[in-house]
Amino acid sequence: MSEPNRRLVVVSNRVGPLVSGGKAGGLAVAMADALKERGGLWFGWSGELSDSGTWGPVNRDVHGSGSTAITLATLDMTEEDHSQFYEGYANRVLWPLLHYRTDLIDYDPKDEDGYKRVNQRFATRLASMVGPDDLIWVQDYHYLTFAQQLRMAEASNRIGFFLHIPFPPPDVFNVLPRADDMLRALLAYDVLGFQTQGDAENMIALMLAEGGERTSLTTVRIMGRDLTVKAFPIAIDAQSFAELATTEDAQIAQARAERLLNGRQQIIGVDRIDYSKGLPERFKGFKKLLEDYPENSGRVSFLQIAPPSRGTLDAYARIREELEQISGHVNGRFGDIDWVPIRFTTRGQPRSALAGLYRASRVGLVTPLRDGMNLVAKEYVAAQDPNDPGVLVLSQFAGAAEQMTQAVITNPYSDGDVAEAIQTALRMDKSERIDRYQALMEMLVENDVNAWRRTYLQALEG
Ligand code: ADP
């Protein structure tokens, strides 16, 4: 049974905003909704850099009152903290490692120290704000060592962790310098949540190799502790996203796209610029479509919306340049005075406009080389017109592929495979499109973000 009076404490790198529905990013909405249901504390970085950093005052922002009041509590970081913890260890070591890109790891022991120091400082500050019955729910790869530090500060609470990105097999994970220490730090949690069954199994394999014993499908006993290790695939609010796609703002965006298309079909991609998203590979897949299936010439346009992220890191700047190059080349070679094959923009779009653009597109192209879940895949399906839906083309390496089996599944490492998958999607007849859409939508509504967070919190309550 749930005990509604146990206060929820959410820890994530960024805190807020307190919004719901289809308006904001997935993580923020899921956390805001969890806190609105039962009140609680949301703790993390303020987004500000200051000289006092984590030693400075806790910024507090209280919303509502009584048992459902929500407090947002944040700390600043110093510039050095941010560079070592966030840009260094989190994004140049853990991000590539956990996305299986060991070739891109850029390890510096100073960054590792900075990462552990920030975890320790944040955990110590939080420890003084929590009561013994509070449920603590820590988000993502920024805070792998957070529970260990809370335990050192004498916290005996139930502490859960959810990893939003993939978790690789032991041979890949063990590339991390001092991987043993990192595993030991993770054992301070009570629940380890992952996006897919495959990710959870990878963690269990790592634990078994270190002397753990599997006590059930989802529990492991190791070094005197019992942990729940389980998949909780993150989700969207499918119903509200579907509604968003029919609002006036969405219709305006849809009409604008359709005017420009002038009867052509649109393929859409929406991603942060990141090497895990397989964007150059995707562009080459589209080029191969024009080469292998020339009947699409003048009939199909590919719109890629790719806002830059973490622009200070070199790897990201290089991808952007590469994409500009490929799209320039494809447009020059295949385009015509009245047809631009690839339209590539790095401008962000309001969520309502995005929903309209998804709906204006016959194909949703989601082809990451590796991705924790990929919410764009779910949003694309939820935004479709039920009477004339488009088709999702999905990489077998997206976490979403485990659930979204009615998508056209493809291997993004082969441009020929991607071209063939797009062609299959473009030629699919309406009744098959409707069948696939209905099956996917049913899954999305049943397993929405509310179900996700309730299932997780149930496991955390023990
Ligand atoms: P990741 O978390 O790795 O960025 P996801 O696909 O899981 O990838 O989530 C990305 C989220 O960001 C989605 O909710 C998507 O709608 C949103 N998003 C991505 N690009 C844009 C954009 N250009 N404008 C608005 N929202 C975007």
Keywords:
2 domains; alpha/beta; 462 residues; six-stranded parallel beta sheet; 16 helices; Rossmann fold; 43% helix
Note down, in words, how this protein is organized.
This protein is α/β, with parallel strands linked by helices. It folds into 2 domains: 8-235 and 449-461, Glycogen Phosphorylase B (Rossmann fold), CATH 3.40.50; 238-445, Rossmann fold. The chain is built from 16 helices and 16 strands. The strands form 2 sheets. It has a 10-stranded mixed sheet, with helices on both faces. The protein has a 6-stranded parallel sheet with strand order 13-12-11-14-15-16, sandwiched between helices. Strand 3 and strand 4 (70-77) form a beta hairpin. The site of adenosine-5'-diphosphate (ADP) has 14 residues, from helix 13.
